[in-house]
Amino acid sequence: AGMRVAVVGAGVSGLTATKCCLDEGLEPVCFEQSQDIGGLWRYTEHVEAGRPSLYPSVISNTSKEMSAFSDFPYPEDFPVFLPNARLLDYLRRYAERFGLLKHIRFGTTVVSVRKGPEFATTGQWSVITETDGKQTLHYFDAVTVCSGNFSEPSLPLHSFPGIEEFQGQYFHSRQYKHPDVFQGKRVLVIGMGNSGVDIAVEASRVAAKVTISTGRGAWVLSRVFDHGYPWDMVFNTRLMSLIRNILPGPLSRGLINYRVNQWFKHENYGLQPEKRYFLPVLNDDLPSYILTGRITIKPGVKEFKDNSVVFHNCPEEEPIDIVVFCTGYNFSFPFLEEEVVKVENKHASLYKYVFPTHLQKPTLAVLGLIKPLGAIMPVTEMQARWVTRVFKGRRANTSSPMYRITGHVLCPLCSKRDFILKTDCLVYMDKLASFIGAKPSVLGLLCSDPQLALTIFFGPCTPYQYRLGGPGHWEGARQAILTQWDRTLKPTRTRVPAGSSNPWLSLLTVVGFLL
Question: Cα separation of 47 and 285, whole Å?
């Protein structure tokens, strides 16, 4: 029999892990506690325990060309940024296209994953699952943990003195579904992640007033970037990444600072981040809502009173009826023993954010924990491509077996707002791609296929680049790269016939300007 791999969860990471197992000739069994695929992206009207929870208006923060799995572009008529229902539709098409459903066991919860009796020699895991109250023991050669990190809300009430005296209503953003709860109310949103800003903007359309309290501020980007192009297609290019990484720290930060303040000067809106790191919030409305007085930005909360709140460095109290804690999520792997993924003061010791460093055998991997500046789908897919090859023992391009690698990365496991990825997403993807021999060589292509080479270097770093060669090579990759702008412009150029657009011209201008 082939090598059996347990996949925990059938969301974005679980689906791509299952597919990569099949690509490598492994035998995946994917366990999903709910009755359907989609994980985070499957909206349900009721909040379900142990499952992520969306509000109906959630739209992807990354554009479709940057968020696609690398061998399965989005249909050209899908919008550029995807409402959650369209994203789920894409995941369903992916599962169907690659025949994943027959490998998924629905309504099955993974209760525990423990080292098998002969772990030191076999690397096997014993996995206990539960279906309809009945438990079953399985043995697997390897395990990929794809259960995500948006199920256990972080609600640090002890950090908010007086909250027990507060007479109004309060809840975590996970509970939020519709803005009508805010009708005519004075609303306080605590925290400035993507959910916090989204909820504040939605609330401000019906509320009496809305205040966002943020201790650290944030960079805010609009999805609609330079000349109306999607932000990530402009921001995440090999050229930009090279500039960011070649320049000395202060210059690189200065450049980013300049770019993010082009839309509006954050300082004037009370948003200038304290720290230097860069993980922006994506929202198209916030600055105009601040400018029209619908939303006010305040510092962190000092304490709550009966029906008001006091902010740091602000003497007066502010009357409040309802509080939304947008304070992120805790990481939890209830089915894993403590020592498998050691989480110490919110850090887990994971090699390349994936493999627990102290296991004798690299037969357990955690997927999708990373919070990249960019789309999570291609990143988890790349992790899965690497992991399945490590499981298989074909450690392409690494002479020493994985588990002898001593250097490891400390992967911060804080709430999602704090999750700072020190490496550039692109650098990380290239690293993993080089492990499996799928990293595109721009210089190599310059001679053989200059058009493709230039598109790869100056254009957006779309996932198809990682299917041009190596294991998992996909015939359609070159064509997908050369037509990426057509698919981006198709859904919006709906009144005039689409001429062949050429971002090349604007690109040459940009290059000229940079030089």
Answer: 27
Shared domain for 59 and 163, answered yes or no, is no
10 Å Cβ neighbour count for 310? 16
Higher pLDDT, 499 or 96: 96
- What pLDDT digit, counting tens, does each position of 226-275 carry? 999 999 999 999 999 999 889 998 898 888 889 999 999 999 999 999 87
Q: Are residues 210 and 314 both part of a single domain?
A: yes
DSSP class of residue 123 equals -
Range of the domain at 74: 4-151+331-435
| Of 198, 417, 219, the residue nearest 289 (C-alpha) | 198
252 shares a domain with 223? yes
pLDDT digits (tens, 9 = 90+) for 434-490: 999 999 999 999 999 999 999 999 999 999 999 999 999 999 999 999 999 999 999
- Residues 246, 221 share a domain: yes
Tell me, yes or no, whether 201 and 281 share the same domain.
yes
* Domain total in the chain: 3
> Can you name the residues that pair with 104 across neighbouring β-strands?
30
Q: Are residues 309 and 455 in the same domain?
A: no
Cβ atoms within 10 A of the Cβ of 129, count? 22
Give yes or no for residue 403 having a pLDDT over 50. Answer: no
9: left (phi over 0), alpha (psi -120 to 50) or beta: left
Question: pTM (2 decimals)?
Answer: 0.91
- Give the angle 387-388-391 at the CA atoms, nearest 5°: 85
218 plus 356 within the same structural domain: no
Higher pLDDT, 499 or 104: 104
Task: Mark residue 197 as left, alpha or beta (left: phi above 0; alpha: psi -120 to 50; beta: remaining).
Answer: alpha
* Residues 445 and 405 occupy one common structural domain: no
The predicted structure's pLDDT at residue 499: 61
CA distances from 139 to 43, 102, 123, 189, 376 (A): 33, 19, 11, 46, 30
Residue type (1 letter), 359: L
